[in-house]
Amino acid sequence: MSCSGARDRWRVARLDADAEMASRTAVEGTGVTAESGTLRRAGFGELAHREWFLAVSAVTSILFLIYGDTFTSQFANPVWLTIIFVWLFSVVLGSALSVVRHADHLAERLGEPYGTLILTLTITSIEVMAITAVMLHGDNNPTLVTHTLFAVVMIILNGMVGLSLLVGGWRRPDQHHNLQGANAYLGVIVPLATLSMIMPNFTRQSDGPGYSIPQQSILAVISVGLYVVFLMLQTGRHRGFFIDDGEEGVNVQHKTAHEGSLWFPVAFLFAYMALVVFLVEKLAPPIDYFIETLHAPVALGGVMMAVLVATPEAISAVRASVANHLQRSVNIFLGSVLSTIGLTVPAMLVISHVTDRPIVLGLEHSDPVLLILTLALSMLTFASGRTHLMQGAVHLVLFLAYFLLIFAK
After folding, report:
1. Which DSSP letter does residue 388 get?
2. Is residue 180 part of a domain?
3. Residue partners of 315: CB distance under 8 A and separation at least 6
């Protein structure tokens, strides 16, 4: 009797548990449980905390949309000009960093080399938009593209490479990277850089040195063609050139740690990109005022654009080097230079013809010598598959020389 009662009580308890489980499952399926509501609120709060800069960028965009003409009319006041420039530059840079953060999230999900490719193409898009905005505002500045291109190369191949190797070499005796991948990058960078920034000085038009329209068209086709061939190599049969053997496990760990929907990083990436497009157009007037009215060095405009473009990638590259993921750093900075020359130059040539604003390719004064020295040093740095602190220090010295020569011209 007692055993039968115990069995009955067990059956009732089991039925109650099953009913409770079914009820909980049904309610959770509708997404209305108190627990799920709390999780959703916590998730929304975490999302708002993580993406707070989106609100800053949106508010800045609205203010410049409404009061932009009023702000611009006060540029004669140096204090006001400085405030507007620092404000806009900081917000654009912060938005660009957010773009890179979400691109980096996608990079970790997709693994190498596709992740770095997304990051590089994202930054190239920002670069083209920034140069176009400044070029189309005010008087035509035909050398802006060349100055920006040269500044990006100097900042990345000397400043970014030097800092990454110096910081990474400070923490460990040497670091390793895939020699074949670095050679593949430099094998395309060296001829494209020569054709884009040195060779125009040795060709002749009726009005002086530079490329004619047919020659510019050939350069654009060559640049895009070589970049496409490189992408086929990078993502196809020679994908292993751009992956270090010790980093494959790291990519798997990153991918596992970031499992989830890809819609959020993609949506926020495009949201920040839209704000960058708008705000960089508002950044053009103060930059033009610095150069055209205050007679600042023309190359300084290119440096401003290059800093805007290179800073997000510099942060990613230095972080990777500190974490002893030098191959990812190599992919970032050499990939950035290659995309700048292989994609930005053709894009700006097309835009110059469409807008009827000619551009002048070809470096002046001491810049060609500094470019040749930088390319030669880069080939030596990545020639062995190992890097150390001394190499980073030499690259930084060249970057300092470039910066000082801007004001010496």
Report:
1. -
2. yes
3. 97, 100
What pLDDT, on the 0 to 100 scale, is given for residue 19?
47
Angle at Cα 123 formed by Cα 400 and Cα 327, nearest 5°?
A: 70
Rounded distance between C-alpha atoms, residue 76 and residue 84, angstroms: 12
Calculate mean pLDDT across residues 243-249.
58
Q: Greater confidence, 45 or 372?
A: 372
Average pLDDT over residues 236-247: 70
Residue 34: inside a domain: no
Residue 327 predicted with pLDDT over 50: yes
pTM score, whole prediction: 0.76
Residue pair 111/256 in contact by the 8 Å Cβ criterion: no
Residue that wins the pLDDT comparison between 41 and 117 = 117
Main-chain dihedrals φ then ψ at residue 12, nearest 5 degrees: -65, -45
User: Is residue 2, in this structure, part of any structural domain at all?
Assistant: no
End-to-end alpha carbon distance in the chain: 106
Q: How far apart are CA 155 and CA 374, in angstroms?
A: 11
| 22 within some domain | no
Check: CB of residue 308 under 8 Å from CB of residue 150: no
- Residue 202 Cα distances to 195, 198, 199, 364, angstroms: 10, 8, 5, 12
| Residue 6, number of CB atoms within 10 A of its CB | 10
Q: What separation in angstroms does the CA of 210 have from each of 24, 142, 216?
A: 74, 12, 9
Q: Distance (Å, rounded) from C-alpha 318 to C-alpha 324?
A: 10
Burial 112-121 (b: 16+ CB within 10 A, else e): bbebbbbbbe
- Range of 207's domain? 53-408
Residue 63 to residue 49: CA distance in whole angstroms: 22
260-269 contacts at long range (C-beta below 8 A, 24 or more positions apart): 262/106, 262/109, 265/102, 265/103, 265/105, 265/106, 265/109, 266/102, 266/106, 268/51, 268/54, 268/98, 268/102, 269/99, 269/102, 269/103, 269/106, 269/122
What is the C-alpha to C-alpha distance for residues 83 and 90, in angstroms, rounded to an integer?
A: 10
What is residue 199's DSSP assignment?
G
75/140 Cα distance (integer angstroms) = 20
What is the total count of domains within the chain?
Answer: 1
Q: Is the pLDDT of residue 146 over 90?
A: no
In CATH, what number is assigned to the domain containing residue 159?
Answer: 1.20.1420.30
